[in-house]
UniProtKB/TrEMBL annotation:
Keywords (A to Z) from UniProt: Membrane, Transmembrane, Transmembrane helix
Protein species of origin: Himantopus himantopus (Black-winged stilt)
Protein's name according to its UniProt entry: FNDC9 protein
Stretches for region Disordered: 144-169, 199-223
Listed transmembrane segments: 110-136
Record domain Fibronectin type-III: where: 1-96
Gene name tied to this protein: Fndc9_0
CDD domains: FN3
One Pfam assignment: fn3
Cited InterPro entries: FN3_dom, FN3_sf, Ig-like_fold
PROSITE patterns in the record: FN3
Length: 223
């Protein structure tokens, strides 16, 4: 068939073949496999690692994802038929392209960076949620503590006022009792002193030997 392999690199190669009239209404099968030594015994389709179907309008195919510094065998047949020796070619891949290696490293570094960024964002979101939850809980506890303290202060003030009033009433009651015990007739005495005319009574005349005695005992007691 005159198969040729061109533009070989460490991971790719272009396979070119002439068009066949027998495949006009069908497709081409491009089969390739590494380690040519294992393929010397037969050319069975089942022995190939990869197989790609290409439309008959095309006469070339780019083989990708090859291993650098490896010997490959590639065959092109019509309608997935078992290839013959004249339908196959052997080629060796080159070393890995420095640009490709650099791109691979960049892609790897970019993937690691993206993964790390996502993890950091998740961790930051979790920490932020935890901090906000803690702040809200502390604020709620502080407000509850203030409300409890104000209620306790109100209760203490009311209790102190009640106790003070009770003590004041007790002192007044005790003072009144002390006054009554010390001066049981103090009120009547003050009234009589203020009105001394109430004690003046007429004196009945008696004999010369008798003295004038007031008729009311309270006034004599006062005198």
């Amino acid at each position: 068939m005159g198969i040729t392999v061109q533009n070989i690199t460490g991971t790719t190669a272009i396979v070119i073949w002439p068009k066949m009239a027998s495949c006009a209404d069908s497709f081409y099968s491009v089969m390739y496999h590494p380690n040519w030594n294992s393929m010397l015994s037969s050319y069975s389709r089942k022995s190939f690692q990869k197989e790609e179907r290409v439309p008959t309008s095309r006469s070339s195919f780019v083989v990708e994802n090859l291993t650098p510094l490896t010997t490959y065998i590639v065959c092109v047949t019509c309608q997935s038929a078992n290839p013959s020796s004249d339908q196959c070619r052997v080629f060796n891949t080159l070393e890995r392209d420095p640009a490709s290696a650099s791109n691979t490293k960049k892609e790897l570094a970019l993937g690691i960076w993206l993964t790390s960024s996502v993890l950091l964002l998740i961790i930051a979101a979790i920490l932020l949620y935890g901090c906000l939850h803690l702040l809200c809980r502390r604020r709620r506890e502080r407000l509850q503590g203030r409300n409890g303290t104000s209620e306790q202060d109100h209760r203490k003030a009311w209790t102190k006022s009640t106790v003070h009033n009770s003590e004041e009433l007790g002192r007044q009651s005790q003072l009144m009792q002390d006054i009554e015990e010390k001066h049981p007739g103090g009120i009547q005495l003050a009234t009589i002193i203020e009105n001394p005319s109430a004690c003046k009574e007429p004196v009945t005349p008696t004999s010369k030997s008798q003295e004038r005695v007031p008729t009311i005992g309270q006034c004599s007691a006062i005198n």
